[in-house]
Amino acid sequence: MIQKEFKKYVYSPSTTLQEAIHDLYRKKVEICLVCDKKNHLRGILTIGDIKQAILDGFDPDSSVATIMNANFISASVDTNKEELINLSFKNRGYLKGHIKRVPILNKEGVLIGLYVNEKIKDPVLPKSVLITGGAGYVGSILSRKLLNKGYRVTVLDNLSFGSRGIMDLQKKRNFKLIKGDIRNIGELIKGIKSVDCVIHLAGVVGDPASSVNPVYTMETNHFSTKSLIEICRHYQVPRLVFASSCSVYGASSELLTEKSKVRPLSLYAKTKVSSEKFLLSNANSYFHPVILRFGTLYGLSPRMRFDLVVNTMTASAYFKNKIMVNGGSQWRPLLHVNDAAEACVLAVDAPLKKVSGQIFNVGFTGHNFTICQIAKVINKLVKNSKIEEADFVKDRRDYKVSFSKIKKILGFDNPISLQSGIKEILAFFKAGQFKDFRNRRFNNYLTQIRNI
User: Which pLDDT tens digits describe the chain residue by residue (452 residues)?
Assistant: First the structure.
C-alpha cells in the first residue's frame, strides 16, 4: 500500500533528539524522516537509534541530523511491488526489527510517499518495561500480564522476600531480572536506560513495616523515587507509573475523590504524598508521570502476603476458627491484587494524553467495606469460624473512596468480587498450601524487623 499522507513522520534536521523521541512516543510511530524545507529526504532514524545515541553520550539537545542514517533504503516511483516488499524487509530498525515503511522519492530526492508492508506488524509502544519491585505481591502478577501481552520485562528487585514469585519467569526469553536495591543509583541506571516505561512498585510497603526503620523507609520510598525520576528524565523515558495508596487520605467521612484533601497518618502514607508531589512537579511535555492510588489489597499472588486485612482474617478463620476484628467500623476500599496489576497494564497501554500527570484512585466504588462487613463475609464462607473483638489499639485509618475517574477514563471495571477472592485463598488452604502463613516471608513488618 502506498501511503501519501506522511507528514507525521517528517522532522526538520534541527529537531532535537529529545523533541523527536517524545513526539514519536506520543504518535506511536517508529520512524523519523528527516527532510529539509523543500521535502528532500536527508536521513532516517528510529526511536531505538535515538535511545542508543543518548546511551552513547549524545546530548538530548543535539539535532536529529547528527545521528540520522544518511545511507537509507528508499524506493522510486518506478519501483515495482515485489521490489518494494523486498526493500521493506531490508529496512531494519533497532533490536533487529523491521521498519514496515519504505520512503518513495522522485528523481530530485523529494519525499512523495511511503510504501507500507502490511505483513510487518506495527510495533507496540512502549515495548520494554522496567518494574521496580517486580518480584513482589503486585509485581509478580504484573510481570506475567505484561509478558503475555508481548512486552519485554525487566524486574529490579532486592529479593528481600525471595524469588519464588518470579522463579518460573526467569527462563522466558523476554524476561530479565536485576537483583538490586533501588537506593543504588548505578543499579537504577542499569534497569532504566534501555526501557520505554517504568512501573515503580518497589518500596517499604504498609504502615507497620515503614515504622520499623524510618531512615531506611525515607531512603527507599522517598529519596529513591527522586533518583528514579531524574534518571528517567535523563534517559528520555517518557512514562513512569507510580504505585501510591489510598491511605494518603487518612481518615474522612466523605466519599473521597482524587481532588480530596490528603491527610496522611503514617510515615508510609507521608512518603507516598511527598513522592506524588515530586512526580507531578517534574511533569512536562517530555516526562509523563501516572499516579495510581491503590485501594486496600488482598487476594492470591505468586508472592503471597498474610499481613493484609482480608488475607489475614481468612487465614485466621480457616486455621484457628477465629476472625479477629480491630474496631470494625472503619471503611476500607478493597482491591484484588490481580485487579491492581490490571490497572498498571491500562496505565502503560493508554495514550499519553489520557494519563499524563493524572492521579487515579484504583478500585471499585461498590467495593468499599467496613472491617465488620469483611469479617461477616469470611464468617459465612468458613464453617465453625467465630468473630471476636481484638484487644489491640484501633487502626485510625478510615476512608471510603470513589473510583469513577478510572472507570470513565481507562474503562477499569469488572472487578473480582470479595467472595471470589476469599474462595481462591480458601481453595489453596484446603489443598495444603500456606500452613506456615505466619512465616515472616509473608509479612512485610516481620521481614523489616529481620533486616534491621
Answer: 555 678 889 999 999 999 999 998 888 887 899 999 999 999 998 888 898 898 888 999 999 999 999 988 889 988 888 888 888 777 655 444 456 778 899 999 999 988 887 776 655 444 899 999 999 999 999 999 999 999 999 999 999 999 999 999 999 999 999 999 999 999 999 999 889 999 999 999 999 999 999 999 999 999 999 999 999 999 999 999 999 999 999 988 899 999 999 999 999 999 999 999 999 999 998 999 999 999 999 999 999 999 999 999 999 999 999 999 988 889 999 999 999 999 999 999 999 999 999 999 999 999 999 999 999 999 999 999 999 987 765 667 788 999 999 999 999 999 999 999 999 999 999 999 999 999 899 989 888 887 76
| Domain annotation covers residue 335 | yes
Q: Are residues 61 and 204 in the same domain?
A: no
Sorted by sequence, the CB contacts under 8 Å of residue 360 that are 6+ apart come out as 258, 290, 291, 292, 293, 343, 347, 405, 406, 409, 410, 412
In a domain? residue 123: no
One domain for residues 351 and 324: yes
The CATH number of the domain holding residue 227 is 3.40.50.720
Task: Provide the residue range defining the domain that includes 445.
Answer: 128-451
Give the total number of structural domains in the chain.
Answer: 2
185 and 260 both lie in a single domain: yes
121 lies in some domain: no
Tell me, what amino acid is at 197? C
CA distances from 372 to 313, 326, 336, 376, 421 (A): 11, 9, 18, 6, 17
Does this model's pTM top 0.85? My answer is: yes
Q: Which amino acid is at 283?
A: A
Cell 511535555, residue located = 285
